[in-house]
Amino acid sequence: MPWLRRLPDGGLVGGNAVTGGQRLTWVDTAKGLAIILVVIGHAWRGAQDAGLMAASPPGLFAAVDTRIYAFHMPLFFLLSGLFLVSAVTRLSVAEFVGSRVLRLFYPLVLWTYIFAVTKVLAGNLANTPLALGEVFASPIPGRWQFWFLWALFVLQIGVLVLRPALRAEQWRRPAIWGLLLLGVVLQTLPLSSEVQVWTSNATRYLPYLALGMVLAEFHAAPVRIARGYGLILVAVFAVVLAAVPDLARFGVPSLVSASILVLSSAGIAVWMAERQTALAARLADLGRYSMIIFLSHTIFSAAMREGLIALGFGNLVVHMVLSTSVGLVLPIGLQRLFERFASPRLIGV
Question: How far is residue 290's CA from residue 322's CA, in Å, rounded to a whole number?
């Protein structure tokens, strides 16, 4: 996997590959798309909880919410899987665990408590107020949106079990395929609620992590996607996304629809980055800041929402545009402040 090796970690899901001195920008582009959907999704649900959708057409909230959450978090797990085998095999066990603690567990703990404090300070202005005594509740399993960091931490540490096989050339691919098969099988098993809660439902996302590992293993060079195939990917993505509720009603497992959406969106990111479009560049810029956006966006978006409500603005479009905008822009400003005056590691990025 030469195009995935020798990379520092970065962003929400890990490193960015470099080939011939160039960043593998499609990964940043895909992360940018996914983090925008994360911010929009939380702003959308926040608006619903604040009662801003009372005048909206029936079914609008569910129609948008279902489609946003159909694939954007699985996409993050797939992107994380791209770099996982390289990290597990390159680093010692202690180094790997230490890197996961630094990049996943520390931000999880830090921002859980930061978020809890902001909710207490917001008092009754918060959609779901938090009592002072709840501030120091355990961050494990992941609370609020930070479930993702805990689930990813659990899965990545769990992959260490396969380290001997992943380091052996003849066993690496069977081990990766076996992990993918295990992930699929686990979707059919009635796991206890305790397992789901204490792993933040990590087993649900194992197939996507393993799928990323498979893609990394079987593509030793950057993929080239011709314009015609790129347009086909866009069409497939759009059709499946539009049909997500109907597919569920017809009994199509979410694993199938989400996998199609994740793979097609990743392919679209490759296509866009290859064509060096302005949109791809802007998405890649956001992707490089995906970690700090993920960690802090809800604080800024919620503050904007409550400020608008206090000023008497109840228009849903205004709320969505402004809450999403500050949720993307202000976290970047926060990271840049720490880059200039301290260290971004202090805030978990």
Answer: 19
| pLDDT number for residue 1 | 37
Alpha-carbon distances of 265 from 29, 80, 249, 310, 346, rounded to whole Å: 10, 15, 23, 38, 33
Tally Cβ neighbours within 10 Å of residue 136.
Answer: 11
Tally of structural domains, the chain? 1
Range of the structural domain that residue 149 is part of: 2-347
Positive or negative, the CA dihedral 240, 242, 247, 248 is: positive
For 303, residues 6+ apart whose C-beta sits below 8 A from its C-beta are: 326
Are 189 and 144 in contact by the 8 Å Cβ rule? The answer is no
Q: What is the pTM of this model?
A: 0.86
DSSP code of residue 57: P
CA distances 229 to 104, 147, 225, 235, Å, are 36, 35, 6, 10
pLDDT digits (tens, 9 = 90+) for 37-94: 999 999 999 999 888 988 888 889 999 999 999 988 999 999 999 999 999 999 999 9
Report d(CA 326, CA 349) in Å as an integer. Answer: 19
> What pLDDT shows up at residue 228?
78
Q: What is the pLDDT of residue 84?
A: 94
Answer for the pair 110, 31: CB distance below 8 angstroms, yes or no: no
